[in-house]
């Protein structure tokens, strides 16, 4: 069971950090949230994904 939890944690970490900064995704998010909103949302997702 420990390996499954590790794999899930890695997947959540990877997706939450890699997807939002991809070239097609980041400009779309910044245009809708603004630069400060994107940074705030990205930081919040990063913090939540650590738990």
Q: How are the SSEs ordered, and which strands pair?
A:
Blueprint: H1 2-18, H2 25-48
Describe this structure in words.
- This protein is mostly helical and 51 residues long.
- The chain has one domain (2-48).
- 80% of the residues lie in helices and 0% in strands.
- It is built from 2 helices and no strands.
- The chain has helices at residues 2-18, 25-48.
- The model has no long low-confidence stretch (mean pLDDT 87).
Q: Brief description of this entry?
A:
With 51 residues, the protein is an all-alpha fold. The protein has two helices and no strands.
Mean pLDDT: 87
- The proportion of residues in beta strands is under 5%
Task: Determine the structural class based on helices, strands and strand pairing.
Answer: mainly alpha
Could you describe the largest sheet, including whether it forms a barrel? none
Question: Total strand count, please?
Answer: 0
Shape estimate? elongated
Please give the share of residues in helix: over 70%
Total domains, how many? 1
Instruction: Report the C-alpha radius of gyration, rounded.
Output: 13 Å
Instruction: Count every helix, treating DSSP H or I runs of 4 or more residues as helices.
Output: 2
Poorly predicted sequence stretches spanning 5 or more consecutive residues: none
- Distance between termini? 18 Å
Question: From N to C, what is the helix and strand string?
Answer: HH
């Amino acid at each position: 069971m420990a390996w499954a939890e590790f794999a899930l944690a890695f997947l959540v970490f990877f997706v939450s950090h890699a997807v939002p900064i991809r070239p097609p995704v980041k400009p779309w998010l910044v245009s809708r949230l603004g630069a400060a909103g994107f940074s705030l949302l990205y930081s919040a997702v990063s913090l939540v994904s650590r738990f």
